[in-house]
Amino acid sequence: AYGVAEMLLDDAIDGEMRAALDRPLATTNLDNSDVPAATLLMRLTWQLLDPTVRETMPLEDADARARFMAWFFSAANSRFKLSSLIANRWRQWLKQSVSINPNVAVPRFVAQTLSISSELQQRFDLNSIEGCQQLSQWTQLVQAPNQPWGWLKSNQQNKASTTSISDLAFGVNLYGFAFGELGIGEDLRMAVAACESAGIPYRVMNIEAGKDLRQADDALKHHVSRAIDEAPYAVNVFCLPGFDTVARVFLKQGDSLFRRHYNIGWWPWELSVWPAAWNQAFSLMDEIWAGSDFARQMYANSTSLPVQLMPLPVSIDRGVKRARSFFDLPTNRFLYLFVFDFNSHLARKNPMAVIEAFSLAFNPRDNSVGLVLKVMNAKGENPAWLAFLKRCQQDSRIQLVQETLDREDVLALIECCDAYVSLHRCEGFGRTLAEAMCYGKPVIATNYSGNIDF
Known about the structure:
Layout: H1 15-21, H2 40-47, H3 51-56, H4 62-78, H5 88-95, E1 97-101, E2 104-107, H6 108-116, H7 118-123, H8 129-141, E3 169-176, H9 183-198, E4 202-206, E5 224-225, E6 233-238, H10 242-253, E7 262-266, E8 287-290, H11 293-300, E9 307-309, E10 334-341, H12 346-349, H13 351-361, E11 369-376, H14 383-392, E12 398-401, H15 407-416, E13 419-422, H16 431-438, E14 443-445
Parallel strand pairs: 3-4, 3-6, 4-5, 6-7, 7-8, 8-9, 10-11, 10-13, 11-12, 13-14
Antiparallel strand pairs: 1-2
């Protein structure tokens, strides 16, 4: 910390040393927060603090760790001359845009500096245009060479690892939301089933999905590993969206788990274009797998990496038999079903179109039919949700199932209805449609995007 700059030892800091210092401490990443885990370098620097100060910033606590990181990065160059030891991922993290009030977004390093500096808080009136302009000018000034944040613009060149992929055993380390009760979590669980069916060695590496998502699917509870050094196989497969691979894996755990491995992004994506702001995500991968031909064409147009069509497995083996009364559904009606997640955006899932189609197809006095809308992660005060709820209440034949169901019960709900409808605007794959077809149900769906493969 004190000798690198004075002794001109920058050239002696190679990629291996930087990666070792950047190793996340597992004990600081157990709170399922969005605050990254502290690294070994941070822990060593924390140890230099006065004991009374350390007591106010225990690294195991997310809020305290956030305060420590704000201090650490502010002091990294000015006090400790640590910038040559800090891995590049933190430069990217610190330059990410974050909101500090509804009208002002700044790079994260600015937000952190403001959070620990009462002098800066008083200097900039962020409720005025002039104050925001002054803060913007300050942001540019402090990133100039020889200024406190000038080190953010100098990337360190990591030397190649001395261990090659060929030194690792054949098999796959599967990264994803192992316990997450959402479609992306099911992608990971189906990848496990595929490996078991094909006899491919695998290890499941759980990624925390965030505190707002229920994570109670325990189908893989005996297969999960959490530590980077428990990823023994040569190939990493990321059953995650590209932005989660960056934000929840690379930025929170570092680049060491990508090194020495062949990295494949089995990335779901629903749109016909890839956002240019996320092009850097491709730099983490060696190959991209697409779950549908629709996604394959999009990726082929977006990256020079090899792109393979790798259709997603589908299974209803975990389904159970449930009577309609279990879900409080009528027994004497032909029931149409649509299952969707509010977090996946109402505009994309398009449930309002299902309601309108149902209303157009059947006379309001026709009680031989019903529409079941299974939704999770509804946002009670969200205007779009309130408008949707109001529309549903206009027809007594429409029934909402709002609670998050166990995987077995979601499949049971599909099985006990008569037909499945998805008038989506786009799907990366369309898993619930495929599951309904596995049950032999007639399916009405938009003739567009991932589902047209099946």
